[in-house]
Each structure stands twice: as C-alpha cells, then as structure tokens.
Amino acid sequence: MPDLSATALLLCDLQNDFLHPNGAYGRAGLGNPDIAAVVPRVAPLAAAVRQAGGWIVSTHFTLVPGRGGEPFISPHLKQLRPFLAKGDFAPGSWGQALVDTLPPADMAVEKVNFSAFYMSRLEWVLARAGIRRLLVSGIVTNGGVASTVRDAHVREFDITVLSDGCAAFSPEVHHIAIEALRPVARIATVAQTISDIQG
Asked: Could you confirm whether domain 7-198 is CATH 3.40.50.850?
C-alpha cells in the first residue's frame, strides 16, 4: 500500500444543508439522486485513504451571519436560490456540517464562494500538513468542484478528480465539467483510485 501522508481526499461541500432531506436544499425540494449517490460511493475511498495514512479534508460552504444573524448572501446566489434564509449554512450549525455518513474530516475549512481557496485558510492548512496531492470529490461539479480544482492547479497541486465522486444537477452538465477539467487534472473513478491505493 503506498504512503499517502502527502495526499488528501478533498470533500467539497458534502454538507447536510445541501444533501440531507431536512437541510436547506432538501426543504426547498432540490434533492437530486445523482448528488445523493456521491456520499455512499465515496465513503469506501475515505476509509481507504485514512487506512493508508492519508488525510480527509472537508470544505464547507458558509453563509456568514451579519447583524441579527441575517446571512450575507451575494446577489447572484440570492437570485439563484431565493429560499436561503437565516440559519442556513451558518457557521457551526448542523446544516453546515459534513454529512455524518462520511468519516469525520481531519481538517475542515469554511468557504464563502465557489472556490475553496478563495479567502479561506485551505492553502495554509494543506501546506502545514505537507499535502501536495488532492483526490477531489464533491458537489457541484461545474461549480465548487471545478473552481477549486482550477485554483489547486495554479498552486501546482497534483490533482485527481473523481469522475463518479462528483455530481451536478444534471448528468450532461457534470460530464461537460469533467471533460473541461482534463487539461488540469487526472480523471479517475472511485474504484480505480481505491485499487491504486490498495495496490
């Protein structure tokens, strides 16, 4: 089994408010079977990464509360997701947390926009942990995943995007996003990656 001490499984935004039926998106009727399938598919990989000495790092989309607890929501997001309200994706809340069907992350990083590198401590904690290789999973492929992968590329990380460990709101959009990432990342399935780890 290879040494994964410099490798992290990066779980992008696999949070209750996105995925759980009682989360913000679930309550708004925006559940999606492709997105829901990501978590059980990735769970065995998370276990394999941890067993091989790798890291699990989760990113958490966050709506920062302002005065009276009302969240700061960018105009484009407010237009796209008008149902978002006070308490959704709030720091430290159940909704903001990683889904409990995945192993707890070794490090968790709040993010406020598509890329997990934008105005966050992600680059700092990865450097402190000695992580140079990222296995990227999460939602949505064309949003947070793609933005984070491209920002990781310009920072010269070795990146593998898990083609079936990510999802979007439509299979077509997911496929287009995965193909567009081929110039900046290796593309592999979860099963292939587990096989590589287990030798």
From this structure: yes
Handedness of CA 159, 164, 166, 171 (dihedral sign): positive
Cβ–Cβ under 8 Å, residues 141 and 174:
yes
Torsion angle of C-alpha atoms 126, 128, 129, 131, degrees rounded to 10: 40
Question: What is the pTM for the complete model shown?
Answer: 0.96
Q: Taking the CB of residue 37, how many other CB atoms lie within 10 A of it? A: 13
Question: What pLDDT is stored for residue 68 in this prediction?
Answer: 95
What is the rounded (10 degree) CA torsion for 128, 133, 135, 138?
50
User: Both tokens of residue 135?
Assistant: 């296995």
> Is pLDDT of 199 > 90?
no
Instruction: Give the residue extent of every domain in the chain.
Output: 7-198
CA distance 59 to 148: 10
